[in-house]
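Review form for a predicted model. The reviewer records the input and the model, then writes brief findings.
Reviewer: anonymous (R2)
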Amino acid sequence: MKSKWLAGLSFLALATTGNAAFAQSGNETETASNDEIVVTAQKREEKLREVPISISAVTGDMMERQGATRFSDIAGYIPGLTYQPGTSGAAGESRFNIRGVSQSNSPISGTAIYIDDIPTTVHGANGAATFKAIDLFPYDTDRVEVLRGPQGTLYGDSTIGGLIKYVTKSGDVNDFSAAAGVEATAIDGGEGIGLGARGVVNVPIAPGLLGVRVSGFYQETPGYQTNIATGDKGTNWVEQRGLRIAARFTPSHNFSIDAQWMKTQFKSGDRAMTQLIPGTLTPLNGDYINFSPVAQPTAQDFQLGSLTARYDAGPVSLTAVSGYSKVIRSFTADYTFFVRDFVAGYTGGAVTDALGIFDAPNQTEKYTQEVRLASSGENRFNWVIGGYYTVEKTNGASYTIPQYADGSPITNLPPIFNSFVKARYTDKSLFANATYKITDKWEVSGGIRHSWITDRFNNRSESLFFPTGEQTDASSGKNSATTWSLGTRYIASDDLMAFVRVATGFRAGSTNANSSWPGVPDSYGNDSMISYEAGVRADFLDDRASIDLTLYYLNWTDMFVFGQSPDGLFGFTTNGGKANGGGLEFTGTLRPVRNLTLTATAAYFGLKLRQDLPDVGARAGDRPPATPAWSGSFLADYAVPLGGDWDLHLGGGIRWSTSNWSEFRDDPTSLRLPGYAIGDLNASISNDRWTVRAYVRNVTDSHKVASMGLDNRGILMMPRTVGLAVDVKF
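Model under review:
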């Protein structure tokens, strides 16, 4: 009842281009208007309020004020975006879904993640896309742009739901700057205090010509899980560290080169999973208590390098973007529930207490190149044309390792199941976009993109389940897709803008592993999305109030779903049918008095299946898994000048959601996950040099189940977290 009440109240709360609450100006006593926020969502600089798509922008200052060390910490305040911790409970596994385009039943994300103009999403189905979400710390983040709806024309594959784009800070060629900070966090039930440190320095090595920025961070997150099988507490601790170097070279007023290299690492001692009573959401032994005879550590190493050159030739400008990224991930899981019975049966009952480990190291390298030629300036007819190329190379393996109860390996058994994968994915695309101003206030736009995709795959598996003990699957395929968009925008005045947009997107089909096994199809085809949307943004009451409202309708065909071979041994992906439905995204802001900003957001997710899919437990009328009917938030931010050059900021928010199903509702493992309303608080005192911040996330210490894993394990919401940070600028 509380979630339904909150859904209704969102519409009564007067509200915003809701991004204003996230966009804080350099003056700590004022909230920036959307006129001041410039975004590059359409690969050119535009004022946020004038972009004719559904978009939100979160500044690095706002992330820092709320104590957010991951984008997921504030995802609940962005309309239309839902966040779910990965079903494995492993650190770093994050699922961001936009407009209900869920990844829960697919190996490939429908929400792409970019760092500047470099895609980091693993598009190939065999690249373990679920496990490679990338997070950056606020020190290096100028803003995060969230683009809702298909973005296939400018961004290509795997953007059928939308796009999350981190925009980083580059080197400053003119001014020296430096900053450093320390932070301490405590988690209810956690073991110890988590410490963090960060620093950044920018040096104009050749003033006006070359500037270099170097930053680094280290962050500990205390563990709060207890493993009663081993007696260990605080097992799911996390350590993160990173280093970034960025440089800007401006040899002339119309030519610049931006280069960056970054490396981030994290490791975790165990998974954040709670053992549940089968068929319920009730913890078997208590909240944040798991029973795992073996440790389940996770580690990830991410590197990215990019080079962006821009040349303005007057009537046209040329941009070339080169990128390279590499992700190495080590993923370990407790497979005792699977291995123990098998070993007991195979040994005739001689070994009944065997342990099982599933180990899955994986590496993906990605090269990208994009070249764009665009018209310059404000013309009646503006255009951009370009070409894009990417190649992904994935090498992965998985091992099912039986052990004796003392942890030593059982070596006198044939392989239970080991797999070795090599995959290569390429995408070659051409695209064009154009805008024509019919009048000074009214314009029309359109775009088209064609992609040529190849996917090569080789999988060798060892298992006693195979008649010969080994099975090899190799395949290659070619694919293509055309996406397009049409839109119009009308700017009635400085305070009122409306737009209409139709856009398409797709995800590339691929091959299935173990396709030579009976009942496993060789491959599956593309899915596709078409979106119809209309939006309005308006300021009124002398700019003390604003609204941002988008209505949309989605039509999703050939959506990806998981299936299983008739004997239940192997899973696969197939095309599952059609889903459609309407929705809305709303943000509103009210500034009733000076220095006080109130913001409310709401989103309705109406995307539903239109036929039964009995193989995956889906009925017509079901929403995709992990998709609520409603979600939203409230935010309040108050600034108080204290005298001298000191300011006090007080802020708080509530992020809420109605219930959702962990899988399609007729899946025998599916459970209805409860709705929630989670509160956050933050406060800071600052001047031109010093900032002292305090924050509390999950104020009421809610322990509700956020997602479900295997073998009756649930991932509960992170307990109440309290943090204190001090930053200084030089």
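Findings: The chain is about 5% helix and 55% strand.
Further findings: Residues 1-33, 129-133 have pLDDT under 50 and may be disordered.
Recommendation: see findings above.
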